[in-house]
Amino acid sequence: MKSSHMLTAALALSVSSAWAAGDNTQPPIASYVVKPASMQWASSIDAQVEAVRDATLSAQVQGAVIQLNVRAGDRVTAGQDLVRIDARAAQQSATASAAQVEAARAAQQVASKEYDRQKQLFQKQYISQAALDRAEAQWRASQAQVQAAQAQSGAAITQSGFYVIKAPFSGVVGQVPTTIGDMAMPGKPLLTVYDPTQMRVTASLGQLQAALVRSAAGNVEVEVPGLAPSRISVPLSKAQVLPTVDPQSHTSQVRVELPAGTVGAAPGMFARLWLNEAASAPMNAATEAHVPLLVPASAVVRRAEMTGLYVLDEQGRPLLRQVRLGRPVGDLVEVLSGVRAGERVAVQPQAAAKVR
């Protein structure tokens, strides 16, 4: 990455006229004045590709897998039969329920004819009102029995349908962790299906980065190694920051939709999000605090596990200060903490170390 492409370092080179106290033979210390970057800068976040529609299919009933119609990578259509589970017991139960419906209907027909005869006899005053009421009660009871039998038959038919796993939508079979002969259990995954036409990239953002995305102060680019030769530019209208924050990592999840027609993207692929901030974007407390500070890479001092810079004080004396560095940008390096804008750092640490 070249600094001319990503960042224009707003660092003014100055030559310190300070001399070490009590030693006027020391040469002046060349230094850089640290200032925030004034042009476009970018930060990258590791991410991964996932499908917007991704279903894990499992059985609602228990039984042995007797038919497996797909393999991983196969394309399926909505409603297509994918897995069949042994449903002989369920089919027998459905048949028995259908027979009970027929028996209930026959009993209802008998009760209906008996009720009609009792009404004719009552009109001729051959029977009492009580006898007619009993016939009517039996007729109504037979109707209720038919309805109950029909409900039980419908439940049995619905139950038998659970033994066939169908594709919920058109897509691609991702994983098939089962095989013929396995015992399917309620909740046990049998296979996964995802829609390759709707893909997105997800990443975890820090609070400041999430604030940049929410304020729509720039654009976002997606890089998927091996998928596209260049970064994919995505408008921020296609980026969504979830409203919840992880209490452990204090990060928010962002979802960025990939353009329709992105070929080759698969769930689980490594990706990288690039958040770009333009110089013309309005500065606020969040963005200003996150604008990087750059120093020359030659000014960095590394001693064992310590990384530092020689920072000049008000008298021009170099003092070694520990810093935390970020990513390199050409001949410069980003400083995450340890220095502030306006401070001067020595660009020749060997010379600054000799000043006493």
TrEMBL record:
Residues 202-277 form the CusB-like beta-barrel domain. Residues 54-190 form the Multidrug resistance protein MdtA-like barrel-sandwich hybrid domain. Pfam families: Beta-barrel_RND_2, BSH_RND. Residues 1-20 form the signal peptide. The keyword Signal applies. Keywords: Signal. Coiled coil: none annotated. The keyword Transcription does not apply. InterPro entries: Beta-barrel_RND_2, MdtA-like_BSH, RND_pump_MFP. Belongs to the membrane fusion protein (MFP) (TC 8.A.1) family. This is Efflux RND transporter periplasmic adaptor subunit. It comes from Acidovorax benzenivorans.
